[in-house]
């Protein structure tokens, strides 16, 4: 049997249950919905695993540990002294460190972002803190639609460190479920790990088109 005949034979077998002639309506396609078989904890755990696969840092914390985790991340990834943290003006209260966090020695200068803040000022910030709109467990992706708490697109691309807060209830199993949550008329930024590219010799370089480091904080509801 030739390769052509083998392909045609497989096609005939696949079409064996299709009615003769053109159907009046589209043939419904039944797709499995694996998310219904998984608990929220399993979906969130899968998301954390896939985020880590992209060489991003992922940390699961309680809702009241966000500010402390932000300060610890800044202390670990910025030079000694004062770290400049960019935050959207509409970031929810309680997420920005206040200096009361115990055992973490780093000063923080908060820079409030807005359309009037020049790009050069964003470039002088060590990190940016944003929330997210939704997250995808299967692909380890965080999606921003730049609504409240997420800032403008430039803010999430220019600082070297992106601290992104994802609530457990925002994690969806697959891409179709995440898309169903999004407004197609809003700008979207899909983030799967830190910015990276490879040259012709496959040498990986990070931080070319966006933050060199992505730190995802998954907060319990």
Automatic annotation (TrEMBL):
UniProt domain LUD: residue ranges: 121-218
InterPro entries noted in UniProt: FTHF_cligase-like_sf (IPR024185), LUD_dom (IPR003741), NagB/RpiA_transferase-like (IPR037171)
One Pfam family named in its UniProt record: LUD_dom
Protein name (database record): LUD domain-containing protein
Organism: Pseudonocardia ailaonensis
